[in-house]
Amino acid sequence: MYRNFPSPQQEAQILCAIRRAGEIMTSALEVQDAVSAKPGTRNYVTAYDVKVQKYLFSTLAEIAPEAAFLGEEEDVHVLPEDKPCFVIDPIDGTLNFIRDLHCSCVSVGIVWGGKAVWGAVYNPYTKELFRARKGGGAYLNDQPIHVSELSLEDALLSVGSSPYIRETNWEKTFAIASSLFLRCSDFRRSGSAAYDLCTLACGRTDLFFELILGPWDYCAGAIIIEEAGGSIHQLDGAPLRYDTGCPVFASNAASHDAALRLLQEKL
Ligand code: 2AM
Ligand code: CA
User: Fold this and answer.
1) Contacts by 26-31 with C-beta closer than 8 Å and gap 24+?
2) Helix 253-265 crosses helix 166-181 at what angle (to 10 degrees)?
3) pLDDT tens digit string along 146-200?
4) How many CA atoms lie less than 13 Å away from 60 in the CB half-sphere?
5) Where are the beta strands (DSSP E) in 8-151?
6) Is the CB of 229 under 6 A from ligand 1?
7) CA 191 from chain center: how many Å?
8) Contact 208, 248 (CB under 8 A)
9) Ligand 1 contact, 217 CB (< 6 A)
10) Per CATH, is 2-144 categorized as 3.30.540.10?
11) 97 CA: nearest ligand 1 atom
12) Is 49 in the pocket of ligand 1 (CB under 6 A)?
């Protein structure tokens, strides 16, 4: 029943809803007044994260009543096994959003049978819509995209610093980043993991790691990277999990083995 989910018609409607969610983000006023802290250090949520998630839940439920939902801004996170599930980050890059850095995305993935099978990431500031379907290739605004062919020596690395759990992870994060930095061309830190995964998928960057992320941060980006010819898995090589968060390593094919070897020396 779910083999062709979402149908082409549902897909077009879902993409339309994701663009509309991005407009809610970019038309936000007085974001500073709408900020509150989530449990954990320096982990923020705004009234707009909640508003965008509510919009997506209600709109996607009309488009695809057969699916379940898992969203970052819910209190309880459960991934059902008996149906496809939308895994949603209404605003990925919330601190960028609060600070008006214009690098935040709407991220909507679909997990079915324990794997990401569809995903779209929309950056409303640049109007870039990345999307992929299992076996159907990856696209940026309807143009096919592919990971780069650069090897480690020329690779550009994106680092996620897991700031909300810095006390337990900062030494390992910077040990891995230093080790890779000394062998690659340079590193970047965008503040949106979903966007980092998409920039890797379209060949602007070549490597990415973060010691812990939530499934809503990487679900859509994971299928986009895989369909663009890249790899994404946990730091120890295990497949990504979608029922809970996990560490994430992503790369193009050309730098994968050398980068992973260096990274694993620091685990
Ligand atoms: P967010 O902006 O949606 O919160 C930054 O390092 C990246 O980590 C962002 O993609 C950010 O997503 C994500 N992130 C923020 N808080 C997190 C948490 N508590 N657990 C996992 N990932 C988180
Ligand atoms: Ca978020």
Assistant:
1) 26/124, 26/125, 28/97, 31/97, 31/98, 31/100
2) 130
3) 999 999 999 999 999 999 888 899 999 999 999 999 999 999 999 999 999 999 9
4) 30
5) 35-37, 44-46, 68-71, 85-92, 105-112, 115-123, 128-133, 138-140, 143-144
6) no
7) 11
8) yes
9) yes
10) yes
11) 2
12) no
Distance 113 CA to ligand 2 centre (A): 24
Taking domain 152-265, whether its CATH number is 3.40.190.80 is answered by yes
Answer whether 193 contacts ligand 1 (Cβ < 6 A). Answer: yes
Give me the pLDDT at residue 1, please: 58
* Residue 176: partners with Cβ closer than 8 Å, 6 or more residues away: 209, 262, 263, 266
pLDDT computed for residue 39 by the predictor: 59
Distance, CA of 40 to CA of 62 (rounded, Å):
34
Domain range annotation of the chain: 2-144, 152-265
Tens digits of residue pLDDT in 238-248: 999 999 999 99
Q: Tell me which residue has tokens 């980092």.
A: 196
